[in-house]
């Protein structure tokens, strides 16, 4: 079946399909279907990030759903943090830290949040930041897209850096090992590598827990509008009082979820309040709460706790996938 010019599906400059062309008679198979409908947002968000201008005295990031963020500097440098472009999956006790903590033989992780970004369609991509080596943070699909379409550097703690080099084909000259207490600069954006205390990841893939600094890191992006801290997956730990005393943090984002009886995977809304208080943050943004069906949490619980306990010291901002956050405006 040959298509006339009027039967060809049309896209706008943002990769969004012209709805009037979708139902036209034309060839269709599974590969065409996947290409036309996935990711759900096409390249809409890629286009927005590419064309957005960060104003003087501001900082900007985009929430991509689950654990994932993008950032852009005033000079135009583009970064992703824990971008997960993968599917639903399961993990078993041979590797999974959550299984080992809970005693479960296998856990299913059913993805709830939409794919709002196309990792193959960035026109500029300066660095891929990874907080730890879990599959939904050290994402194979994202890493391969960045390898093949950009000159991006890959920034990760020692364990994840080693795994990217040995298992995923990332050249050593494109890897930057994130060591606590050090920092790196991409054009006008300085990123500090601060301590992180993710108790689950230190059990992942091993029988004896690994040191925190081998597996996990907090990234603090020093924007003109304030310092943005990305904590990835962590639990409350008294060490965050030390981090709060040493580093100035204006906005922080950390995983949140509902823990079923018998296991502790995500930080609870109460844990988030305690972490935010310890870090002396001004703005607290939950993430990961919308990612997996088995630990989905309602963000209004966090808002309630912060309002009752914070006495105006901390503001909660809840973002949906695709939302842009500008500090201090928002």
Descriptive labels:
330 residues; alpha/beta; 7-stranded mixed β-sheet
Notes on the structure:
- This protein is α/β, with parallel strands linked by helices.
- 23% of the residues lie in helices and 22% in strands.
- The strands form three sheets. The chain has a seven-stranded mixed β-sheet with strand order 8-7-6-3-2-1-16, covered by helices on one side. The chain has a seven-stranded mixed β-sheet with strand order 9-10-11-12-13-14-15, covered by helices on one side.
- The N and C termini lie far apart (52 Å).
- The relative contact order is 0.14.
- The mean pLDDT is 92.
What share of the residues does DSSP label as strand, in percent?
A: 15-25%
Stretches where pLDDT is under 50 for at least 5 consecutive residues are none
The side-by-side strand order for the widest beta sheet comes to 8-7-6-3-2-1-16
* Rg computed from alpha carbons, rounded to a whole number of angstroms: 20 Å
Task: Please report the number of helical segments.
Answer: 9
Mean pLDDT: 92
How many DSSP-defined strands?
16
- Tertiary shape: globular
- Strand-pairing-aware structural class: alpha/beta
Multimerization state = single chain
* H/E topology pattern: HHEEEEHEEHEHEEEHEEHEHEHEE
Summarize the amount of helix as a percent range.
Answer: 10-25%
- First-to-last CA distance: 52 Å
Largest sheet, in brief, is: 7 strands, mixed
